């Protein structure tokens, strides 16, 4: 049989003319050696068809194309009496991938990551993909600080042109930062600069924070923190020249060296504003955070540009530019700034587009928007609109974009995209409260009834002390101006014989209507009217004052209650608050049309101040005052109480203030409670809903002057952990009383564990 070899290797096609072939007409094409690959795939890469002429150039193209598929490890072309024969040897397929010695990662996760490198079971085996997967696995270990990891790979050939791939991994130990050196600093001690860095040498918290493990990302963040510190302290020419990372031969210790140039400290010489300011120049100057004779601060420059930009954006100039042009005097170490204002074109809103709301009606979202169509663009109103849509609680995401309208230079659209979440719930659960014991709860709630934004809810809560049943309905936009209206029906039973307060029981049923009126974006007033009937039960252990009250006014009383309240909320977040305050003033009065005559006044104020990026100071004040009028007393079951979680921690719940002859708390007609709490996220936990705090509490309850008991203010201090978990708030505290008296009842560890699960 006479066969002529056209090509064996691509390189042969480019050798001496002795390898050249005489072009021939292809009478047939035959493919040999394929097992998994379809013959049609081979035919598709051949540059000639049956009946066409084959030459050297076309043979080279065919071989390169077939190699390029990655399916074959050898390709040859032969010719026999006009028949073109394509001989191929396929690459093996991967039958299995085995990973041994891995503890830090789930093996399934590693195999998923290998797929991105091109290495997976049933795929064609490629040595390049194997190398890439090996390097990616090593990179993941290095990211965890294990620089000494050893990875060996083995490829075993199997029958039917298959292979098995085995990774043998020796993870090794985590490499630790042995030393961090800063070279070139003279103004600030090295110890102060190292305190700014998250990376550190091992300490007692390293097992938790992992800050003794080198990370390129953490080092970059530390360098930026150091640069910001110097630039905000006047060192305009500060520079980080280089960073060197070295590791010992045994891969256990890491040394970091940072070379810096501090330069001279600069002060601000002059500050000026120029350009078209649009608003009075004095308004712009009032926003400047940079003043003559101050130390140079990059943060102040950035803040100035931001404030001026936002002020112009409030006038519709969405694309305003504020550039700080420096005038540097290196001899005097002074720098002057000219803030050049370019407002650009004034822009108005063409259209507000809403997307993603499959259930919620457009009007429910639109009525929260303070930016309106056809009005000038106002960045403040855009932000407030997004914030109000967020607060609805109907969406897991609210995104607002303001793209320019194509073909115009003075129009923008507001595109609002929301991602709806379930707003209905059916809950059956239980919890534990250190004051009330086991609490059972259940309810059905729909906070976006039929997409209208209205709320309907029923609640059932029961414990050894309190049993509450209620049905509530609220329409937050009873009027177009934002006035709300709600209805409530409730039944409340109190069994005080189960706790350490004076013995009595009460059963109350009532119904009412309430209204809310917004004063501005952050304030509202509320008022309501309700009627309720209360029945009192006494025991042989009930104090004489309770017995006298029932004898004078009866065991069953009907009350018409009027309420009036005011609220103001300026918090930056209702979940993770770092700044702002929330205040409530509330009055409850029994109108003189039925049996009871009393009033209660309450004022609560929580104030948050960001001490630093990680610490927030919270102060809390609660004031209460009540009494009777028209010859009646304030009902004893309406008394104020203090002590325990949410009040003065470290003391038994409701134990402060006047007591009866058996030394059980009676409550009082006035209350004062205050606390200071320094809160911070728990180190190493990214979830911001978990906070650690140190607190100082104080408070007292006062009654008629002839009552004995825990007189005077009581103080406590301690630590607490709060977690706003998906099943409700979890609060744990350990309080130490500071001025306890012998009569006081203490409870140092207190908790409220969930409201449902």
Describe the protein.
The longest helix is centred in the first third of the chain and has 17 residues, at 127-143. With 757 residues, the protein is α+β, with helices and mostly antiparallel strands. A hairpin with a 5-residue loop joins β11 and β12. The chain contains 12 helices and 38 strands. 24% of the residues are buried.
CATH superfamily of the domain at 4-90: membrane protein fhac
CATH names the topology of the domain at 4-90 as Ubiquitin-like (UB roll)
Give the overall shape, derived from the CA principal axes.
Answer: extended
Instruction: Pick out the low-confidence regions.
Output: 4-19, 427-439
Global mean pLDDT: 84
Task: Name the structural class.
Answer: alpha+beta
Largest β-sheet summary: 16 strands, antiparallel, barrel
The tally of beta strands, per DSSP, is 38
Tally of helical segments: 12
Cα-to-Cα separation, first versus last residue: 83 Å
Percentage of residues in helical conformation:
10-25%
Radius of gyration: 38 Å
What is the name of the CATH architecture of the domain at 4-90? Roll
Order of strands across the widest beta sheet?
19-20-21-22-23-24-25-26-27-28-29-32-33-35-36-38
Sheet-strand content, in percent, reads 35-45%
CATH level-1 class of the domain at 4-90: Alpha Beta
Features:
about 750 residues, alpha+beta, Ubiquitin-like (UB roll), 16-stranded antiparallel beta barrel, 12 helices, 38 strands, about 15% helix
Layout of SSEs?
Layout: E1 4-7, E2 24-25, E3 28-32, H1 39-45, E4 53-54, H2 56-68, E5 72-80, E6 83-90, E7 93-100, H3 107-116, H4 127-143, E8 150-158, E9 162-170, E10 176-183, H5 190-196, H6 206-209, H7 216-232, E11 239-247, E12 253-261, E13 267-275, H8 281-287, H9 298-313, E14 321-329, E15 334-342, E16 348-355, H10 362-366, H11 379-391, E17 395-401, E18 411-420, E19 424-433, E20 437-446, E21 455-462, E22 466-475, E23 484-495, E24 505-518, E25 523-537, H12 544-553, E26 556-569, E27 580-590, E28 598-610, E29 616-628, E30 650-651, E31 657-658, E32 670-681, E33 690-702, E34 709-710, E35 714-725, E36 728-737, E37 746-747, E38 749-753
Parallel strand pairs: 3-6, 7-9, 10-12, 13-15, 16-18
Antiparallel strand pairs: 1-5, 2-4, 5-6, 8-9, 11-12, 14-15, 17-18, 19-20, 19-38, 20-21, 21-22, 22-23, 23-24, 24-25, 25-26, 26-27, 27-28, 28-29, 29-32, 30-37, 31-34, 32-33, 33-35, 35-36, 36-38
């Amino acid at each position: 049989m006479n066969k002529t070899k056209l090509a064996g290797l691509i390189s042969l096609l480019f050798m001496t003319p002795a390898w050249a072939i005489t072009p021939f007409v292809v009478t047939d094409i035959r493919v040999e050696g394929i097992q998994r690959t379809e013959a049609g795939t081979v035919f598709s890469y051949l540059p000639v068809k049956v009946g066409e002429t084959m030459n050297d150039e076309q043979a080279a193209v065919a071989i390169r194309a077939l190699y390029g598929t990655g399916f074959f490890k050898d390709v040859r072309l032969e010719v026999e009496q006009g028949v073109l024969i394509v001989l191929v040897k396929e690459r093996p397929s991967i039958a299995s991938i085995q990973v041994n010695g891995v503890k830090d990662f789930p093996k399934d996760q590693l195999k998923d990551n290998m797929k991105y490198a091109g290495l997976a079971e049933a795929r064609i085996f490629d040595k390049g993909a194997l190398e890439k997967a090996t390097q990616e696995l090593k990179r993941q270990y290095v990211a965890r600080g294990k620089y000494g990891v050893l990875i060996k790979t083995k490829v075993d050939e199997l029958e039917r042109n298959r292979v098995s791939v085995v990774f043998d991994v020796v993870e090794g130990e985590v490499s630790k930062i042995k030393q961090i050196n800063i070279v070139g600093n003279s103004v600030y001690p090295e110890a102060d600069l190292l305190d700014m860095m998250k990376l550190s040498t091992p300490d007692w918290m390293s097992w938790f924070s992992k800050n003794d493990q080198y990370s390129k990302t953490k080092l970059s963040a530390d360098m930026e923190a150091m640069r910001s510190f110097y630039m905000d302290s006047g060192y305009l020419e500060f520079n980080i020249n280089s960073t060197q990372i070295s590791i010992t031969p045994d891969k256990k210790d890491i040394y970091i060296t940072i070379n810096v140039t501090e330069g001279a400290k600069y002060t601000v010489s002059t500050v000026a504003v120029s350009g078209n300011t649009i608003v009075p120049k004095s308004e712009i100057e009032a926003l400047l955070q940079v003043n003559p004779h101050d130390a140079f601060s990059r943060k102040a420059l950035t803040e100035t540009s931001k404030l001026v930009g936002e002020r112009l954006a409030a006038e519709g100039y969405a694309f305003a530019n504020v550039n700080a042009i420096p005038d540097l005097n290196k001899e005097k170490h002074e720098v002057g700034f000219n803030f050049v204002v370019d407002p650009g074109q004034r822009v108005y809103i063409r259209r507000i587009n809403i997307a993603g709301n499959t259930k919620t009606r457009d009007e429910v979202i639109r009525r929260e928007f303070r930016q309106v169509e056809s009005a000038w663009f106002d960045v403040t109103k855009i932000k407030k609109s997004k914030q109000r849509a967020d607060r609805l609680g109907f969406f897991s995401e609210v995104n607002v974009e303001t793209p320019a309208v194509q073909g115009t230079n003075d129009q923008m659209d507001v595109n609002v995209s929301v991602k709806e979440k379930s707003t209905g719930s059916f809950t059956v659960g239980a919890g534990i409260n250190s004051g009330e014991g086991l609490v059972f709860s259940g309810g059905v709630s729909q906070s976006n009834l039929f997409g209208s934004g209205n709320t309907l809810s029923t609640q059932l809560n029961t414990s050894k002390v309190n049993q509450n049943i209620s049905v509530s309905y609220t329409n937050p936009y009873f009027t177009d101006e934002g006035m709300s209206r709600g209805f409530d029906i409730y039944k409340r039973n109190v069994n005080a014989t189960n706790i350490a307060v004076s013995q009595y029981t009460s059963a109350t049923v009532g119904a009412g209507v309430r209204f809310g009126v917004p004063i501005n974006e952050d304030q509202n007033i509320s008022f309501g009217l309700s009627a309720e009937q209360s029945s009192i039960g006494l025991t042989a252990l009930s104090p004489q004052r309770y017995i006298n009250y029932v004898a004078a006014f009866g065991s069953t009383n009907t009350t018409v209650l009027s309420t009036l309240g005011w609220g103001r909320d300026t918090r930056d977040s209702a979940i993770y608050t770092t700044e702002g305050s929330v205040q409530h003033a509330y009055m409850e009065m029994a109108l003189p049309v039925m049996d009871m005559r009393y009033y209660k006044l309450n004022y609560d104020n929580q104030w948050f101040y960001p001490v630093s990026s990680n610490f927030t100071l919270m102060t809390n004040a609660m004031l209460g005052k009540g009494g009777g009028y028209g010859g009646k007393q304030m009902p004893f079951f309406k008394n104020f109480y203090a002590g325990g979680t949410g009040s003065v921690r470290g003391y038994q719940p409701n134990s402060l203030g006047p007591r009866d002859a058996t030394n059980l708390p009676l409550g009082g007609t006035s209350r004062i409670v205050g606390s200071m709490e320094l809160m911070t996220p728990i180190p190493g936990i990214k979830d911001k809903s978990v906070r650690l705090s140190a607190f100082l509490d104080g408070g007292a309850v006062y009654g008629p002057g002839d009552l004995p008991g825990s007189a005077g203010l009581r103080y406590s201090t301690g630590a607490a952990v709060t977690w706003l978990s998906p099943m409700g708030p979890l609060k744990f505290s350990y309080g130490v009383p500071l001025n306890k008296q012998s009569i006081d009842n203490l409870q140092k560890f207190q908790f409220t564990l969930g409201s449902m699960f």
